[in-house]
Write a structure and sequence with these properties.
Helix 2 crosses helix 4. The protein starts with a helix and ends with a helix. Helices cover 82% and strands 0% of the residues. The chain contains five helices and no strands. By secondary structure, the protein is mainly α. It has one domain. One of its GO terms (biological process) is regulation of DNA-templated transcription. InterPro entries: bHLH_dom, HLH_DNA-bd_sf, PRE. GO terms for molecular function: protein dimerization activity.
């Protein structure tokens, strides 16, 4: 038995479950979803692209947070209060 299979059995996750989870990831990540229409994508590519996608989402959140902070700083008191109330 391969070490990968023995590890998956020890953790209680079957190879079929791993395959199903990778397929679900494949459907969630736009880059993979668009490229997978032409054929099968390896699990390692799915995981790699998922990590890249998550990094990009984090960067987008950071950029938007920075833009919001700048907007709040430049807004007058009433505008800032409205924006803050919309965020709550």
């Amino acid at each position: 038995m391969s070490s990968r299979r023995s590890r998956s059995r020890q953790s209680g996750i079957t190879d079929d479950q791993i395959s199903d989870l990778v397929s679900k990831l494949q459907q969630l990540v736009p880059e993979i979803r668009n490229s997978s229409r032409s054929g099968k994508v390896s699990a390692s590519k799915v995981l790699h692209e998922t990590c890249n996608y998550i990094r990009n989402l984090h960067q987008e959140v950071d950029d938007l947070s920075e833009r919001l902070s700048e907007l709040l700083e430049s807004a007058d008191g009433a505008q800032a209060a409205i924006i803050r109330s919309l965020l709550m």
